[in-house]
Specification:
Layout (H helix, E strand, L loop, with lengths): L5 H12 L27 E2 L2 E5 L15 H11 L3 E6 L1 H4 L8 H15 L4 E6 L43 H10 L8 H17 L5 E5 L12 H20 L6 E4 L27 E3 L6 H4 L6 H25 L4 E2 L11 H14 L3 E4 L19 H6 L3 E5 L2 E8 L4 E7 L8 E4 L9 E7 L2 E3 L3 E5 L4 E5 L8 E8 L1
Parallel strand pairs: 2-3, 2-9, 3-4, 4-5, 5-6, 6-7, 8-9
Antiparallel strand pairs: 1-10, 10-13, 11-12, 12-18, 13-17, 14-15, 14-18, 16-17
Helix pairs in contact: 6-7
Length: 486
Amino acid sequence: MKRLPRRLRLPVLLAALVLVAGTAASATRIEPGPPRYLTDDQGRALFLHGFNTSGSAKDDPEHLPWITEDAVQREYEETGTNFVRFLIQWQAVEPEQGAYDEEYLDAVAERVDWYAERGYHVLLDMHQDLYGRYTSPEEHSGNGAPEWATHTDGLPVARQDMWELVYLEPGTVRAFDNFWNTTGKHPELMDAYAAALRHVADRFADEPAVIGYDLMNEPFGGSLQGPAFEAGPLADLYRTSIARIREVDQDAWLFVEGQAVGVNWGLPSALPHLDDPRNGEPRIVYAPHAYPLPMDLGEPYAGASQGRIDAGIEQWSNSVRTTAERLEAPIVLGEFGLDMSGEGATDYVARMLTETERMAAGRAYWSNDHDGWGPWMDESLAPGPLAETMNRPYPRAIAGRPVEIDYDPEAPALTVRFTEEEGVSGPTELYLPDTVFPDGFDLAVESAGSRAEPESADWDGGLRILSVETDSAEPGTEHTLTVTPE
């Protein structure tokens, strides 16, 4: 969802307007605190940078995105991403109650393979907007739930000039209320949804590229909003879904979001701590979205508006950290984006890239379509300004506990500082785009404060990945890698 209903914006409008203007961070150092990380099977901390794939799946008759294998390759070449939030839908997974569409899942698996062959981590996102298309079949305005799970009780759903306002239509509200069973009429729907997630997890449990599942896109509570919704039905759905997925997949990371209304703008979430019954450390990820309120109201990232938007980003960041600490979870920004033709658009994207790096968070831009928001100028996949902005150096994996990630585009230089951790193996992997390092690079290594030689440093010119292994040392020993252009 790119923007939210104006009537739903009003309760937080005054709060947003009294924020004190902030400024963008000039570096990408991880801020103090105990950030948590997604890790791979070698124990390395992962930094996920990518796109949503894609908004086009919402309207496609087969519920699949526009992409081709060549387009996946093109995305890597132009932006260096290692992560994709891949949209799937309940109506596609389970078009008839209790009957799962294996042909659809085979088509998803084919596309997952395209990403897997290029080293991507794939997040399967159970997407919905406006509950689903069957709240008002003649309007076809939503996506998500199948017809058999849509119960509007005969209440109307009219098309609106602003599609988000359809959330407030009586039939849409009632469909959500029946799903969450706040009406007391349909206790079976949340169980069926969790069972569908279990089936998807069972299908992809042995696919290493699938890093996890986003349990519901931008949850909306119908007539129940705020803490009562997040700590009530939403948390219940998450607990049920987590338990069902863990019956078939002990390794996946499970991504959860708070309600979209308010939380996307920066208001605190009331989502409670969620237990993970897996054998081992919990693998719950907090995956909020970010659409600052001034921009949602049409303001550009320029002039006086820029200060208000920066202040909103700071508020969002603080709220996200607070929720992540309560959840004891790493952070991945599941959606952020804007129309790239707007004033200050690339500056805003760069600001959000800096913010997520400062938070030690992953991110997925909305989306990789060629609709004016994405990285492509048109269907020829000619790269636009977003592609250049997104294509920046970063560590894909760090073989220890990250302490600092500092990318200075003015110098330019990428610095990665981390401490040795017991049980972590493999190299630290750095993505170095040719736009920043056109003629090669110099690598400097410090271990325990002294200049050192790496145990190994391997360069993959095709992927533009520098893999660096430091000499093993006692846990807690600090290593610093600095890469500068030749």
